[in-house]
Amino acid sequence: MEELLAYRRQLVDRMEKSVEKFCAAVRAAAGAAPSGEGWNVHQLAVHTRDGDKLVYGLRVYRTAQEPNPLFEDFDQDAWMAAQYDANEPLEHVLEDLSGSVHKLAAWLREAPAEAWSRESRHAVMGSGFTMQTWAERGLAHLEGHLEEIERAGAESKKEKAKRKK
């Protein structure tokens, strides 16, 4: 049981470290070219923030607080088409994301051990998704987009260096 508790503490610590790395990488790559999905850095930051708040974070909270909640599938493309605001200041997006992740991390640190094993259902993927599963998926989502932003920033630096030659 101690190993599981240590794993969960490390998971929460990684969330906070990853969001700080993500914010720094976005700031460094703000003018970089679109990602593999065709989104620019601002769009990726908005998507990551909204995914944290409206998908993974929400699922963590609801799984802990409701009896076996059912989650609908989240259509990220439809959401972005309907909700994306290119004029939203990037710093606001990053502050919102960072605040949301740190709030969730603090909440997870205080959550009772049994809450981590509470289950939920997903309309497309089925049942048996624990609060821990949603926390892990949220972290994977954040870290996946962190890697994408870091690649975009590195490629942008290479392009700038080529133009200087």
Task: Walk me through what this model shows.
It is a single chain. This protein is mainly α and 165 residues long. It has helices at residues 2-28, 41-65, 76-83, 90-110, 131-164; strands at 70-71, 119-122, 126-130. A hairpin with a 3-residue loop joins strand 2 and strand 3 (126-130). Helix 1 (2-28) packs antiparallel against helix 4 (90-110) and helix 2 (41-65) packs parallel to helix 4 (90-110). The mean pLDDT is 92.
Q: DSSP helix count? A: 5
The rounded distance between the terminal residues' Cα atoms is 58 Å
| Structural class computed from helices and strand pairing | mainly alpha
The portion of residues forming beta strands comes to: 5-15%
Largest sheet: 3 strands, mixed
Number of strands: 3
Overall radius of gyration: 17 Å
- Estimate the mean pLDDT confidence: 92
Strand order of the largest sheet: 1-2-3
* Succession of helices and strands: HHEHHEEH
Report the helical percentage. Answer: 55-70%
Shape: globular
Low-confidence stretches: none
Brief digest:
The protein has 165 residues and is mainly alpha-helical. The chain has helices at 2-28, 41-65, 76-83, 90-110, 131-164; strands at 70-71, 119-122, 126-130.
SSE order and pairing:
Elements: H1 2-28, H2 41-65, E1 70-71, H3 76-83, H4 90-110, E2 119-122, E3 126-130, H5 131-164
Parallel strand pairs: 1-2
Antiparallel strand pairs: 2-3
Task: State the main characteristics.
single chain, 165 residues, mainly alpha, 3-stranded mixed β-sheet, 3 strands, 70% helix
